[in-house]
Amino acid sequence: MSDRISEALAKVEPHILAVSVINLDNLAKNYAEIQSRIGNVQIGSVMKADSYGFGAVPISKRLYKEGCRQFFVATIAEGIAIREVLESDAQILVLSGPLDNTEDTLISHNLTPVLNGIYQADLWINCAKKLKRKLDAVVHVDTGMCRNGFSPEDVVAYYEKITNYLSVSFVMSHLACADVPEHKKNVEQLHKFKSILRILGNPKGSLSATYGFFLGKDYLFDLIRPGKTLYGIAIRDDKIGSMLPVADIFSRIVQINSLKAGETVGYGATFKAVRDMKTITLGIGYADGFMRKFSGFGCGFLGGKKIPMIGRISMDYLVLDASDVDESLLKIGNWVALTRTPDYTLEKWAMELGTLPYEVACRFGQRVKRVYLGEA
Predict the structure, then answer these.
(1) Does 130 qualify as catalytic in the annotation?
(2) Which of 54, 55, 65, 127 is most buried by a 10 A CB count?
(3) Domain shared by 344 and 216, yes or no
(4) Marked catalytic residue, from 267, 272, 305, 331
(5) Mean pLDDT by 10 residues, the chain (376 residues)
(6) CATH number assigned to the domain comprising residue 200
(7) Rounded to an integer, what distance in angstroms lies between the CA atom of residue 197 and that of residue 194?
(8) pTM for this structure?
């Protein structure tokens, strides 16, 4: 554990049992690294799901200081939350677009909707007509994700009407298989997107989210939309470590036990001690996002040692085998690391769970206090 993290943990209120230490300086370095790789292409940072569980307000404030001016959110509520802390020149783009009776909210908070079809386009066009001025918008065309967006046929037929009443910042699409570089769908979507842009008169375009820009310069266009890469999260083995991890998780020791051989730990008595053992109980459980599925094969770090998790994770607690840890470190209230950069990051944690690291990050609950390193 670094001195900087130790100092931050020492300031945490004693009643807080679990924390996520979020390094905003590493976030800034990741932003700069991405920008260095893409040249003059713009970055639109993805803030959805409360910045993947890391806190959209401080994250967006720091990224604005680093030069970011486009921020993507999933919902209007997410947009409102960061609009309150960003300057008016920051463009906040709402991926879910407008719904009935949301137009005034979008206008009053200076939010730009992503239009995903004719229905949404008509809502926003009618709002522009009522206000007698052009409104900003992004047009989303579906090139193969089959989730959100205009069909290619609809966007071609409707684009002239859209541009008559709206100011289109850019046209975007989304890659379905960018995390698998050799997947044929990447090239298919690239060619389809290029074709649509040509038909529409070559407006600005955005095709790539995090992994799209790793596919090469053909996928960059005018703006990329990194999310997890900003936060140092990778889902491809060959990209782990290519960016700096932004978060580490810690929990306090709340109980120290001496087990006799034959005693069991936790619900269901799934772990049985084969020898006398020393165990520690931490104040974090599945209610905090530490999934029950992790029972029996997770770990923690204390005193430079990797110590195994034993028994089932319960709602509020988990238990670790601390038999090999120096007794001087086994004190109620001491912090135990549940991730350790670079040995055991959220990516490796997620791989053991058979899920995605940003699913893990998004699950951390309100009881896990966020502690920030660096200025927001």
Answers:
(1) no
(2) 54
(3) no
(4) 267
(5) 92 97 96 94 97 96 98 98 98 98 98 98 98 98 97 98 98 96 97 98 96 93 95 68 86 98 97 97 94 84 94 96 96 95 78 80 90 96
(6) 3.20.20.10
(7) 5
(8) 0.93
